[in-house]
């Protein structure tokens, strides 16, 4: 007896999405023009969309209160987020025990990009958006970038534009990516956001502060200092850039090796089964215990009138800010923020094996991860803080990254982390080609192709947010430097 219900198929023969993405990524000049007016458009909107940020004592944060028993910082509504303490036991780590503040924001936000064909070319609807923690004002952001508190209007602000396109999305076609991904595991406790890309049959009107752009144009902007925000980068990384629908060149140059890295049929150092087994081994064998504790009772941390900081002056501070904003759903508010101490280095080492580019990933343990280990960049550190750890050793591969000759540096741009919770969190993002020999069975590192990483990005909790940013940067090198 057969089931008469209609079945659906995802046929790769009907203009594969990978081919449409690749065609858009090739175009710096599209049907709607080029980027020659981008700086003027950005500056013009910036005169209306702005933030004025003043540091204020933590006790003076309007709408926030300090728990009299624990010292935790929380909003009076019980919504948004809480800053509390964390006690970590990690035997075998350079620091086997420590305590720290951490942000607990359990609600799931939406990071969504609308796409649509314009004269047959895939375009993305991007938003010029400013956050209080941005070091340099406006950034290019996803179509929708909203916490659940934002889009349910807990703060009584304006409705979030275009939100309707990202609700109940699986009742209609056109979902190119939809996955919950983690955020910074050293600063957030098990934070996740829904990363979504939806393709419409035709473009909708771009409201003030929004702009339809090709992927090639977004990739060009990824090469500009602190222009494309973290939320846009993580969503872009989830797009299916790799796959059988894209032509692969026969050359022996870097770009050819990069494009072959996205080919599911290309050779790889490790099989997908070996990679998954290694991740499971690392998660099973990493002995880490995390316990919530009172913020006011943390060892080696002190609270002053204007901040909570580590006694050594390292890692990060928790500060208070008062914000006046234009061009946002809410015009005035106060909040705590994390301010890192120093600029970080976030880098992939890459190497060609049999003409296929591979990325050296690190199985990272961070106390805020939901599943113990996620794959991170080869290097992810703030050298100043790392030097204060016992032994003061240099992070593995940091010298290889920073001392690389110019011809081996494929990407080098300062980008920032999420400006809604982090204040001036700038990192130098690099992609460096190397001949470094890393043992095949190294317990903490593996060489992976871009296609293997893209396969993992279809699932939650495999690739951390810093590595996802670097994957978006690698994509930007497909058709231009």
UniProtKB/TrEMBL annotation:
Coiled-coil residue windows: none
Top-level taxon: Bacteria
Annotated ranges, domain dTDP-4-dehydro-6-deoxy-alpha-D-glucopyranose 2,3-dehydratase: 37-239, 273-474
Sequence intervals crossing the membrane: none
Matches recorded under Pfam families: Hexose_dehydrat (PF03559)
UniProt-recorded name of the protein: NDP-hexose 2,3-dehydratase family protein
């Amino acid at each position: 007896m057969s089931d008469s219900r209609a079945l659906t198929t995802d046929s790769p023969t009907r203009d594969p999405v990978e081919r449409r993405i690749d065609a858009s990524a090739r175009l710096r000049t599209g049907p709607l023009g080029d980027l020659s007016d981008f700086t003027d458009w950005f500056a013009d909107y910036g005169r209306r969309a702005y933030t004025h940020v003043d540091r204020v004592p933590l006790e003076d944060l309007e709408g926030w209160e300090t728990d009299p028993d624990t010292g935790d910082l929380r909003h009076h509504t019980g919504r948004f987020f809480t800053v509390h303490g964390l006690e970590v036991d990690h035997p075998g780590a350079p620091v086997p025990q420590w305590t720290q503040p951490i942000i607990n924001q359990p609600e799931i936000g939406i990071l969504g990009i609308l796409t649509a064909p314009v004269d047959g070319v895939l375009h993305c609807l991007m938003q010029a958006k400013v956050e209080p923690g941005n070091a340099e004002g406006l950034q290019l952001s996803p179509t929708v970038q909203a916490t659940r508190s934002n889009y349910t209007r807990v703060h009584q602000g304006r409705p979030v534009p275009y939100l309707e396109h990202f609700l109940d999305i699986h009742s209609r076609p056109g979902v190119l990516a939809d996955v919950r991904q983690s955020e910074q595991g050293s600063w957030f406790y098990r934070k996740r956001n829904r990363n979504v890309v939806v393709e419409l049959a035709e473009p909708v009107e771009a409201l003030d502060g929004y702009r339809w752009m090709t992927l090639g144009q977004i990739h060009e902007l990824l090469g500009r200092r602190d222009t494309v925000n973290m939320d846009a980068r993580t969503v872009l990384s989830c797009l299916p850039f790799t796959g059988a629908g894209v032509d692969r060149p026969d050359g022996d140059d870097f770009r050819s090796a990069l494009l072959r890295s996205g080919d599911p049929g290309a050779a790889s150092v490790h099989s997908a089964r070996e990679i998954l087994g290694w991740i499971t081994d690392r998660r099973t064998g990493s002995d880490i215990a995390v316990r919530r504790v009172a913020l006011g009772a943390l060892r080696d941390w002190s609270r002053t009138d204007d901040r909570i900081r580590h006694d050594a002056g390292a890692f990060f501070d928790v500060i208070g800010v008062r914000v006046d904003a234009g061009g946002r759903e809410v015009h005035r508010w106060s909040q705590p923020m994390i301010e890192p101490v120093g600029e970080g280095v976030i880098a992939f080492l890459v190497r060609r094996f049999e003409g296929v580019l591979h990325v050296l990933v690190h199985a990272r343990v961070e106390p805020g991860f939901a599943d113990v280990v996620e794959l991170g960049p080869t290097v992810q550190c703030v050298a100043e803080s790392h030097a204060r750890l016992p032994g003061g050793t240099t992070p593995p591969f940091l010298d290889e990254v920073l001392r690389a000759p110019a011809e081996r540096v494929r990407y080098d741009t300062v980008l920032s982390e999420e400006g809604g919770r982090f204040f001036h969190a700038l990192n130098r993002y690099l992609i460096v080609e190397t001949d470094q020999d890393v043992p095949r069975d190294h317990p903490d590192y593996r060489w992976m192709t871009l296609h293997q990483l893209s396969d993992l990005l279809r699932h939650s909790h495999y690739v951390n947010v810093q590595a996802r940013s670097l994957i978006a940067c690698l994509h930007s090198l497909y058709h231009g430097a």
